[in-house]
Each structure stands twice: as C-alpha cells, then as structure tokens.
Amino acid sequence: MSLVKHVTDSSSISIKESDFNDSMVGNAIPWPDRSIKEISGLKWHVDIYPAGDDWEYQQINTGQVDVYLVVSKPVNAFVTFQIKGTNTTHSEYVTFGSNDRELVRAVPGFVLHEDLRNSGAIKKGKFVIRCEVKFDIPIAEFPAPPPIYKLLKEDCNTVNLVTENLEIEANKSILTEISPIFSAMFTHNMVESRTGEVHIVDLDSDTVRNVIDYCLGKNLNTITLDGVLNMLKFADKYNINGLTEHLETFLIDILNYENAATIYKHADLHSRENLKNACAKLRGKMSSRF
C-alpha cells in the first residue's frame, strides 16, 4: 500500500449539437493533452464521441455521447465526467495499466442525445462536458498492518489450552471470535468457562502453539507438511473456517507427485472435499502420463 497525495486537474469542452448526426459516429473530438507535473511524463486527455463510437450501439440507443479518458502511463485516479448545468455525472476510481488498452477508460453511453435535449443543457446549439481527474501521487510505502498480537493489551482475558505436556495461554476474546466451538465453551455455563481451561488430548503442544501464534499474526520459523496438516486438523476440529480455507489453499498450491498421497490421506480421513478433488485431479494427470 502506498501513501499518496491527490493532485486534481480538470478541463471542459464545448460540443455542438450538430455533431450528433450519423456522419460523426466513430469520430472523436479530442481534447489537448494536459500534463501533470508531479509525475514525470504523465499526460491526460479526453476523447469525446458526440455521436457515439459504435454504429450498432448507436442505433440501438437512438443516439448517445461516449467519452474516453486517456492517460500516458500507469496511474490511479478518481475520474468524474459531468454535463454542465445538469445532474448527469459519471464517477469512478480507475487503475490504469501498462498496455494501450489499460491506458484508456471508456464510458460508452455517457448520456443519450434525447436526455441532453430534455435537460436544458444545450444552449445556442452547444453543451459543455467537464472532466475532473484526481490523481494518486505516491509519496512513500505505507507500512503493512501490524500483527494482531502487537495490538493486544497486556492484561487481556486469557484461557489455557492444556495439552499432554504443556499449558498454552491464549487470548479468550480472539478464540471466541474465530471459532464457534470456543465461543460456545466460553459464553455458556460449561466447564471450560468455569475453569478457564480447554483440554486438548488429540493434538500435540507444537500444533496448538503454531495455530495460536499463526492466528495472532506471528511468523512460524519452519514447519513440516505434517505440521501443516495438524494445524488444519485443529482448525477443522474447532471450526476456524478462515484458517481452514487459508491452509487448504496453501496445500493445493504446493500439491505435487511427492506429497499427494499424504495430503489425500488427510483429506479423506477428515472429509476435506476440496483437497480430495485437487488430489484426484493431480492423480488423473499422473495416470495420463503412463
């Protein structure tokens, strides 16, 4: 994410009503280029098609004005087109890319000829289109959001997750928010709510610690495939759906011929259909090679 400042530029042009005729279909009235000195090499202009840019579309809609904003290099901008003296506007935030097509933002059918005539915008055979562009000028890189563990108060409510050989302290509120299972434990008159302890007998302390740290935004130094699968087992057991989806996406991304059997075994045991389907798809590719 970038820290930006906004530089606003605008321009207006007068268009003749006589340019609505069929001979002008596909013919643009270009504006002069305007330079933005804050970004080297950045210029912009608008192409106005008073009788529309496309003959077929023009016939269907019985006449419209098309507008195109054109920039000279990639940039982000908030763009507003307006017909002077009316409520006819079009505004949007645009990310302009690097190729020729991505340096143009088209607004086909910006306004119909009939609506223009009925609006009173046409004075003495002319009307005015105004374009305002608010460019994002990057100043610096904005820092990534801090992991949540750095934002927590030191005296926040905690519970203990008790494994076979270790008690792991965890933030009670966070567990309640990410897991409906933990939420039920701590908000109803259950033993976990009364004692402040959750006993976990089917997962080791490393897995529990990894899940808690990862959900708090802490980096895990290293982890094995079995470690990831155990984290997925924990997330599945306690219905931490966000973590489940995140880990499944990761496993599908790293799926290959060497780890497919291990991942499929876990997916089949725990009824993870997305993982199973991904493994089956890879197996089909493997079979087709022999």
From TrEMBL:
Signal peptide: none
Gene Ontology annotations of biological process type: protein catabolic process
CDD domains: BTB_POZ_ZBTB_KLHL-like, MATH
SUPFAM superfamilies tied to this protein: POZ domain (SSF54695), TRAF domain-like (SSF49599)
Protein name, entry field: BTB domain-containing protein
All residue ranges annotated as the BTB domain in the record: 157-224
Domain of life, source organism: Eukaryota
SMART domains, per database record: BTB (SM00225)
Annotated InterPro entries: BTB/POZ_dom (IPR000210), MATH/TRAF_dom (IPR002083), SKP1/BTB/POZ_sf (IPR011333), TRAF-like (IPR008974)
